[in-house]
């Protein structure tokens, strides 16, 4: 039974904490948040201790592992603190918004032999898993093209956007990770274009809301990603993997399989699951499971700090390409 | 080049006439209708002769075959007149609303060796053909259950209904024919239930608007038919054939493959093709083709008068069952 | 926190016991099964007590409610024993295979004011719930026709079949309950046909494997049910509800939304969830939740013994109709 | 009744000739092909004259319009010859493989006031038309992203490839035209990547088989195109148009709406229509109709030589981008 503390009692920390609390293999020891109130409320609901100071919680003897769901700029110090105390870490993406700092952290973790997993939860979505399994089973032969559609239901609050690191590092970073994972090869070149079609006011903070990215690997495999901060029909998450022997599609997920026929629509499906907490609820749970399994079984981490660094690097390349109009070598 | 006359210049006669006119294997000689104006207008459009008297047209030496699309009560006399003059006949369903008269006509046609095809056009719909071919190829093994959904977009005018022979003989008769054709065995027992859920006023003419029929064959194959005179979402025509090795479904047909996603609907398909003239346009054309092929090649008629009689018999059984609440042996 | 015991440690008892164990509102006190081993194994896994004697468990002071998942012929005595001790009951269907005994039990429970819910779990399936909600919201106007498809993946073992009460009482009974629930009116007439198309050997025990049922309500609403003990493509569970203002369909559920395109198939969906334990896992969980809510909140039971009795009555009518070839008044 | 000659009796010429022959508004006067045999055979089948010399046919007094379906390098001289004789022209794409020559031809045609339509037939596909109509009706608000998938069932013969002008000018050129037409704005920047994943031997002729293209317009609208010379599951032609108020998808077209369920696949659809002659049969017919309507009604040509030139320019930009790894300004 692994003893786990969750750092951060915000939206994402609450998900992780609930998953730890209901896991048969872990015990939720404490949740920590500088906002004592958020921590206390969450701890009360999940019957664990509440804490204020994340560093102190990391140091507790009765904590074997920590899940980091704090603001991005605290990821690196908390991760390194935990690694130095020999604690296993599941850390939210991105490692850091600054590639140099991320690189330094990854190297330090590797030097110390730290047990760290980066929380690219979408790899653990059952449908994504089914895609990867079908590819591995050779169902579609050699991969030629990967297409990723990734549109959010609506713009986040401007306060969030201001510290998000920009659409590529905040939102598309998930797609960069999935692209690497599905392509089975590293992208060597990135071209991106970025527009402000939802909110022209984003120019103020130098951000964009609508993007397209094109990448290729050394062997010539190709990848397209499209993203938008707003899709009126809901949270749109689709994959298409085209290979020499076939194609795999992953359609959107809905609450039920009911279909409606009326005077104005025929065969309309249920609305999309509205956002990532609902759409990827299973993925968050299975991600934690994979983390616990790796920690307890001693197997390599399924998503490494280097994976986190690489996705960030692709995001940086995309931003540079969008700003300069040039194709960027990774 | 078969020389063909079309009898009847109404809705269905116009379809047949246009198909004859554009066929490479037939020449449209004349269209006949007691309403001289309807005949003249149609003939002018299709560059053929207009006539008033169907019997006279049948007798013309330059007419090899006739298509009968006149009111139901004229079907038998016109068919017999044509058969006695050695003309091939494609006759609209039903043969007659009265089973005894239909029986007598079928026997007379068979005695005379008449070349008559009954126009159950749905057998020639490409999707129905694909179903039949897949069954014949053994794709789903032995048939166990056939389900037919058959709903019209809206109630016909009351003038039509008054002379239609009732929903079973007028509308469901197509489904009885398809049931026989898809089951591959004769139904031996029919149970039906009939309601007035669209227009209670149909009680006045003893008709119904919403029906369900259940049938079984001697070997135990089962068939369900549902029908309704009104479906607000359009003309609903579906088949399901369930067998020991699989299942075949035939979905509705739409004008295009476009799908719509908006704030209020996701993945909604195009509206259904609105009614039988649009939905079965190909079937009418291929039906005529099959008729011409049979006449010119000397092969047996693909749909015989006996088929027409049998569908009528099932319709009568269904009506009797609905009125008496008893299962009826065919 | 309701203290619950589960009676029966077979396939269905294990589901209920696991759901009780993981519920936040209930505590699993004990599982009882005449096979001590089955009870011990399940109890060990779920950290509760194991028992041999169900009656004794019912009588325990620390048991507030019992879930009955024992063989059918014990349902009535266990239910009544529990009711007489003032315990709340969630009892698997059917109440009994004999309608007279079921009737007597229902009357006794009602006389005693017993708190009993019959486990028609499908009403709690999220898709079924969405159908019912859409109907209640008036989305499809007045209901005209309900179609239910209910096919199992394969024949159960002959030992099971011998004591199952026959396909109508064992398998179709779920569909009878759903028909009542979805129609919103009581069926007043039942016609059924039953065949042996999967295994002719079922004649030996007087059972069937392929059935169709047709029902109507007093106002003329119609219902069709089809069932088969074997569908090679998997566990097929679909609903269609056709009304004056539209139609609702409930498609099958799959493990993921992945679709496959290869040389031999295009746009093929994932296999169906194989059988009821997988397909209705959520429904079992939500059913227990509804039971706990009703018991603790004092609200009426969402599915009553009288509902259980009524489904059994329809099953009996269907069997009688299939055997006699007559329509049966309920 | 427009008198039309078809130049070229190859695959595409035969399509156009058959459509002219069966049109009610045109009369097929002659078909011309340097291979006298091909012309004679086609002419015999369609009951018109056969000719050897296209220039002579253009000059005939009884020819009002010509359809040019000859090898690409003859397009410009034949078009100009026809324009100078005052004949209307429907010319296959591309105008020429050389942009400078195409530019010169377009300018000459415009100077002469020539009536020339370039045969981008896909704009006339009913589904494409429905997309355009829905966009025009404001159904999806302002366009943000257009995605085009365009994969052929298999590599053409190497003889064809050698003179095709390369994948961008031969195959993707259709998609460039559709992109312009659907975006409603001119692309101002093109980035492309091209690989040889089907046949490495294409390096010999400097061609590619798998491509991705990314474009943006001045206002920031984005477009992605993917193409491949081989898709084992068939001819894959899809569009996705994402806008501020919704999304439109255009799925592939199939022969029928039948779906198959077996032990190994569930809900598999019919195979795709295998290649462009089948998939775009309606589009070819409607394209000719649009040409005839424009010629006879005096309206502007629905697809102009300048459209043809612009698509070629985008193809050239894509090739340059793929070869240099740079984004190209149009």
From TrEMBL, chains A, B, C, D:
GO MF entries: inositol 2-dehydrogenase (NAD+) activity
InterPro entries, per the entry: Gfo/Idh/MocA-like_OxRdtase_C (IPR004104), Gfo/Idh/MocA-like_OxRdtase_N (IPR000683), Myo_inos_IolG (IPR030827), NAD(P)-bd_dom_sf (IPR036291)
Keyword annotations of the record: Oxidoreductase
Source species, domain of life: Bacteria
Domain Gfo/Idh/MocA-like oxidoreductase C-terminal stretches: 132-330
EC number: 1.1.1.18, 1.1.1.369
Domain Gfo/Idh/MocA-like oxidoreductase N-terminal: 2-120
Pfam families on file: GFO_IDH_MocA, GFO_IDH_MocA_C
Keyword Oxidoreductase: yes
Enzyme class, spelled out: oxidoreductase
Family statement drawn from the similarity comment of this UniProt entry: Belongs to the Gfo/Idh/MocA family.
Name listed for the protein in its UniProt record: Myo-inositol 2-dehydrogenase/D-chiro-inositol 1-dehydrogenase
